[in-house]
Amino acid sequence: MFPEAGIAIVVMFALSVAAAAGMLARLDSAGYPTAFVCAATAFAAALTLAAVVATAMAQLV
Asked: How many whole angstroms separate alpha carbon 45 and alpha carbon 17?
C-alpha cells in the first residue's frame, strides 16, 4: 500500500545492523575509523541483501 514504509523499515533495519557491527568492533578494541568502516560495510551489505531478496520476490510473483 505504501512502499515508502517498506523502504523505511529496510533502512532502519540496516542502520541497526550497522550500529551493532560498529559497537561490536569497538568492543573488540578496534579504533573508531576501523569500527566506522565495519559499520558502513554492514550497512551496505544489509541494503544489498534486501535488494536481492526484493528482486527475487518480484520475479516469483
From this structure: 9
pTM, rounded to two decimals: 0.89
Q: What is the CA radius of gyration of the chain?
A: 14
Residues 36 and 23 sit within 8 Å (Cβ to Cβ) = no
Copy the grid coordinates of residue 35: 569500527
Per DSSP, the residues of the chain read --HHHHHHHHHHHHHHHHHHHHHHHHHTT--HHHHHHHHHHHHHHHHHHHHHHHHHHHHH-
Q: What is the mean pLDDT of the chain?
A: 94
pLDDT at 2 over 90: no
